[in-house]
Amino acid sequence: MAGDNRISASTVRRWVMEVIDLLAARAPRLDRALKKVTRKGGHVVLFDGTLIRTRRRTGADNRRNYSGKHKAHGLLFLALTDDKGRLLWLSAARPGHSSEITTARYNRFVEQLRAHKLGAIGDLGFTGLDNDPNNLVVITGYKAARTKPRTPAKKQVNKLIASVRAVCEHAFAHLKNWRTLTKLRLHARHATTLLSALLVLTNTEVSR
């Protein structure tokens, strides 16, 4: 682009970053996304985490971004969708070694749900996120213990939850269709801005 238009590469890069910043500014914050769901009469949201692959880095950053779960380097993002699989919100990037439940706590996810009187459905990785049995807002299914296997009823509950959560995977698939996410070479702060911009573009493409 720079060579064809006889302008410097740094100018093109600055233009691209300005467009990305403008798009990212349109991405909703968590509280606004939940408020919008409530305003539309929604009662439940779906949430999950995903690892966006990155190139290996040297030094301490290399270890921070390595995910033992995925056996790859990357940045962890949490995503919120509605029951139709539309992306509503993406968290800021966290190092790949972070766990999904820790990232949810970092974003005060349970407190935000209670403030907006909403419930949420997540996978077993979020078990223990909500420890208030009198005001439970996060449903995650049942884990099996070594000495206490799941009963047929609990297995059926897990299947029902998995079927409801399937739309989360569809939302992530739409987001990861962007070629630039093949393997990022960005700082976490810039990756957060890029993913926020792609959230806006993804919703625009899906709704067309």
From TrEMBL:
Instruction: Alphabetically list the UniProt keywords.
Output: Metal-binding
- What are the names of the required cofactors? a divalent metal cation
| Full protein name | Transposase family protein
Q: Which organism is it from?
A: Streptomyces halobius
InterPro entries noted in UniProt? HARBI1_dom (IPR027806)
- Pfam families for the chain: DDE_Tnp_4
Taxonomic superkingdom:
Bacteria
- Which part of the chain is the DDE Tnp4 domain? 48-203
